[in-house]
Structures are given as structure tokens and as C-alpha cells.
Amino acid sequence: MSITELDRAGGGTATGGTEPAVHAEGLVKAFGEHRAVDGIDLDVRAGEIFGVLGPNGAGKTTMLRMLATLLKIDAGRAEIFGVDVAGNPHVIRQLVGVTGQYASVDENLTARENLWLFGRLQGIASPRARRIATELLGQFGLEEAANKPISQFSGGMRRRLDLAASLITRPPLIFLDEPTTGLDPRTRGQMWDTIRGLVADGCTVLLTTQYLDEADQLADRIAVIDHGRKVAEGTPDELKTAVGDSTLQVLLAEPREVPAAVDVVRRLLGSDPVLSPEQGRLNVALDQADLAADVLIALRTAGISITSVNVAKPSLDEVFLALTGHEADGDDEDVKEVTR
Ligand SMILES: Nc1ncnc2c1ncn2[C@@H]1O[C@H](COP(=O)(O)OP(=O)(O)O)[C@@H](O)[C@H]1O
Ligand SMILES: [Mg+2]
């Protein structure tokens, strides 16, 4: 495909229909015995931000790399804007912008030189590459730093430059692999704005994250993955409702009173609390935060003493506990023993 054809694809011919941006069925990637991605179905609609939420090691990067043709798909199949991924790697690479692959930018070149160079490497004529570089530097607030070598860039600036580089060919679909992990809160906010801007310009974004708040802020829909499998999917609201609007975290003075406390909660709310691996700790999903008082009164009436209490928004950990029965970063087997 030539650049002009790409511009047209980005502008709508290839992507303007009802074709999903990503359609995947039963994706599998095995490393030796270990199935890093173990049968994932995925549908990303054109024009949306889709979030893949999961802890370290869940298989997020592996899944993105398969969809971007950077890793072979072991089983299952995937299409991007209706184009079969395994059969048309060259077309797919033109349709998808992947961040993270430009990490090895030349430290001694300036941001402007780097972007120009990437454009040239993609086969774009020099004057046009220069023009695109200037545009992207503006779009990403890197004008002032444009003529500084990358070695002087902060982490946030590097991340923005990396994203800018992935947009040189104007791909209609952008993969962002943990775009804000390790960034400070202000820089995270800037990145969120940048991502929203991409979608406003007509791009589709598939992003991975470990943070519920990030998925919540950005994503139209979320798939939660764990151990290479999808454990839940829905809008942020649907996911949060699955674990309640807020969570009452209770630490009992006597761990042996846990069964009695579970009984009290079940009778009051009609659902069981989630037991934490920590001895004597319960997480109670609440539809409304003010139900917390009712739970505490009921526990006290039953003569169960409490060491500490906390009402919080459900965290990723709680979403995971509720959906999978184990902690997001926990060792599966061990935790199941304790929470049984
Ligand atoms: N090239 C590889 N060789 C062997 N194992 C790998 C390789 N890449 C990833 N893995 C394993 O696959 C699992 C999923 O990894 P990854 O996709 O990087 O997860 P995530 O991006 O969600 O943190 C992990 O257990 C990881 O150790
Ligand atoms: Mg990863």
C-alpha cells in the first residue's frame, strides 16, 4: 500500500464501515508448556477506546503483539478492519500503530530528527517526513524540546515521542501498551488527554493497563484478563457494579469469627463478602456506601468485634478478587488455599 492509499484508509474507506476494528476468536499463544494467552475472544468497535485490564503477567502484551503481527498466533484467528492478521502481515502493519517498539530511538538525535528518521524508514519522502514531524511535535506538546537530544528527555516526554512515532503513518488503529505505567500523576493526566484527542480525531485505541482508574477514565469498554483468559467484559459501570459501587473492608479481631461474619453479611445483603487472603479480613461489596453502617451494626449486634474498617472505591484488586477469587498480583494456588 502506498502512503496515499493509507491516507485514504485512515480517512475512512477501509475503516468507515461497520467492520469492527479488531475481531479475534480463541487467540492462543504458548511459550513452551505455558499458555500466556489461552483462548481470548475480542471485539473492538471502530472509534472506541477499548481497555484490556489485567495484572502483570496476565498476557496483555502477548495478545497485542499477536494482533500486531509481531508474534505468531498459535491458535485462533484475528481480523483488523476485516483483514486477516496471519494472512496479511504487511497490510496489518500499515493499519496498526504500536507504541513501545521505538524504545531504541537514537539518544543523540533530537526529537525532530528521530521523527523524521522514522518517517524515512517507513518510506516517506524527506520533505513530507519533515512536515509530519513538525505536526506531531505540535500535537504532542514537544515543540520546545524538538531540537534537544532524546538523552535530555523525561520519562513522560519519551512516552509522548514514542506515541508520536507510532502515528507517523497515520494508522487508524493504535495499540497502547500500558501507556502510563511509571509516570507521575500530572504526566499521566496529559497522556490521558492525548489519548482522548486521538479518538476525537477518528482513531480507534486498544490500550492495556494495570489500573482500574485508567480503564475507568478512558475506556468505553473493558475486558479483564487474567492468566491468559478473559474473566469479564463490559463498560466500566458494568464492571464496577459487579463488585459494588464501593467496598467495605473489615478486619475482624478474631479470624475464627469469619464464618459468622459471612453469615451476617449474607443475611443482610443477600450476597457473600469476598474473603481476603489476609486472615480475618472481609471485603463487602456495597451498592451504596451508606450501607456500610448497616453492615457494621449487624456485625456488632452479632457480637463480632472489629479491629479496623475502611470504605473505598473498588480497586483493581477487589475487581480481581470478586471476579477470580484471587488477588491481582497474588500467587494463584496459595491464595485459593486461604480463601476457600
Ligand atoms: N517471550 C517469552 N517467552 C516466554 N514466556 C513469555 C514470553 N513473553 C511473555 N511470557 C510469559 O507470558 C506471560 C504473559 O506475559 P505478558 O504478555 O508480558 O503479560 P502482561 O503484558 O499482561 O504483563 C507471562 O507469564 C510471561 O512471563
Ligand atoms: Mg505487558
Automatic annotation (TrEMBL):
One of its GO terms (molecular function) is ATP hydrolysis activity. InterPro entries: AAA+_ATPase, ABC_transporter-like_ATP-bd, ABC_transporter-like_CS, ABC_transporter_ATP-binding, DrrA, DrrA1/2-like_C, P-loop_NTPase. It is found in: Cell membrane. It is a peripheral membrane protein. It comes from the Bacteria. GO terms for cellular component: plasma membrane. GO terms for biological process: daunorubicin transport; doxorubicin transport; response to antibiotic. Keywords: Antibiotic resistance, ATP-binding, Cell membrane, Membrane, Nucleotide-binding, Translocase, Transport. Belongs to the ABC transporter superfamily. Drug exporter-1 (DrugE1) (TC 3.A.1.105) family. This is ATP-binding cassette domain-containing protein.
